[in-house]
Amino acid sequence: MSNTGLPHEFPPLKNDLLLRAAKGEKTERAPVWVMRQAGRYLPEFRAVRAEQDFFKVCRTPELACEVTLQPIRRYKGLVDASIIFSDILVVPQAMGLVVEMIPGKGPSFPEPLKEPQDMDRLTKNVDVEKELGYVCDAITLTRQKLEGQVPLIGFCGAPWTLFAYMIEGGGSKTLQLAKTWIFKYPNESKELLQRIAIVCADFLVAQIKAGAQLVQVFDSWAGELSPADYREFSLPYNQLISKIVRTKSQELQLPKVPMCLFPKGANWGLEELAEKAGYDILGLDWVHEPATARKCVGNRVVLQGNLDPNVLYGGRDAIEREVKKMSEGFMVDGASVGWIANLGHGITPGVDPDDLKWFFECVHKYSATQS
Ligand code: CP3
């Protein structure tokens, strides 16, 4: 055992900008990374995917590590975090469901949960270290290979978002099937949400133990619920995750790792989530006005975000103008304080990698704290 409480020794961290901002500190500039930064907009990622199935990449630590490092190599000195290559849908797989990634269509469950009795098909007491050990191995390997250049982020999906995928069987415009469950079978829905939350929490603890230095919970479909339904079917389970992760990390003497919640679209709830969700960082989509969001949460939480990913299609002048505007909105008295620059959702496949480079350069320029 090393003196960090972790079972592995890792190279010392050379760039801790992300971790300082995550504590709410004033930083010389905003740290920056983007969701889906290892993805199809990168030719080197497409080359790996031309040879390998999506979940094969997730399940092979050497491949997951390789694609995680691709943006770190390409944007050396410009990007301040890496995020382990995986997917939120590895949790439903660990619970016993089959998930395939269909080119051009996205994720698909051949046998989604149709009725509450289908929950019997799910594995009870999931052994996360066994079922998802491949993600943990990828994290440990990546921490070694990163050589301390930037911190490594681990993640999982939020219970509500995973519940919706498990019932819809894939993407959906209306979430009609998932909503049928919460309105028709509220008790069974809560039982399922609770079961998912426990797996997610154990999974995040395992990721921290494996070397993750910040963890993020993706509630991509938060905005599909009314505020009252969000309070009943999403928030309690996101709170449960943070509670379990913090308690277990302490019991296991793991490092205190910052936790980020990305409740996409739940824009009515910023103040309430800052108060109650139990996360250090809230991720914002682009529908938030940065200065208003900052005022609304005060210094209770750190904010992450939030440029519309489509700005990256607007050319260099638009990118520069929008990054400047975003920075002015988030900064307080000319300083970057408790702000992690990011897009408001994942980067999309058609972006020119050089335009993302320009985005990073503009963040460096416009988020610099004036001394
Ligand atoms: O951010 C990163 O670079 C880490 C890797 C990561 C992926 N998915 C890789 C991926 C992360 C953090 C995710 C999270 C994820 N996965 C979410 C939450 C974030 C969000 O975007 O809302 C969701 C909803 C999923 C489920 C999922 N996976 C969908 C809907 C899709 C298809 C959409 C698409 O972009 O095609 C995926 C596939 C996926 N996950 C890809 C990548 C790089 C592209 C698929 C491919 O390589 O063929």
Automatic annotation (TrEMBL):
Chemical reaction(s) catalysed: uroporphyrinogen III + 4 H(+) = coproporphyrinogen III + 4 CO2
GO cellular component, one term: cytosol
Entry EC number(s): 4.1.1.37
Pathway annotation from the record: Porphyrin-containing compound metabolism; protoporphyrin-IX biosynthesis; coproporphyrinogen-III from 5-aminolevulinate: step 4/4
MF-aspect GO terms: uroporphyrinogen decarboxylase activity
Domain Uroporphyrinogen decarboxylase (URO-D): 31-40, 153-169
Cellular compartment(s): Cytoplasm
Function: Catalyzes the decarboxylation of four acetate groups of uroporphyrinogen-III to yield coproporphyrinogen-III.
Record organism: Serendipita vermifera MAFF 305830
Subunit structure: Homodimer.
GO BP annotation list: protoporphyrinogen IX biosynthetic process
Alphabetical list of PROSITE patterns matching this protein: UROD_1, UROD_2
Keyword Transmembrane helix listed: no
Homology family: Belongs to the uroporphyrinogen decarboxylase family.
InterPro entries reported in the protein's UniProt record: UROD/MetE-like_sf (IPR038071), Uroporphyrinogen_deCO2ase_HemE (IPR006361), Uroporphyrinogen_deCOase (IPR000257)
Protein's recorded name: Uroporphyrinogen decarboxylase
Keyword Lyase: yes
This protein's UniProt keywords: Cytoplasm, Decarboxylase, Lyase, Porphyrin biosynthesis
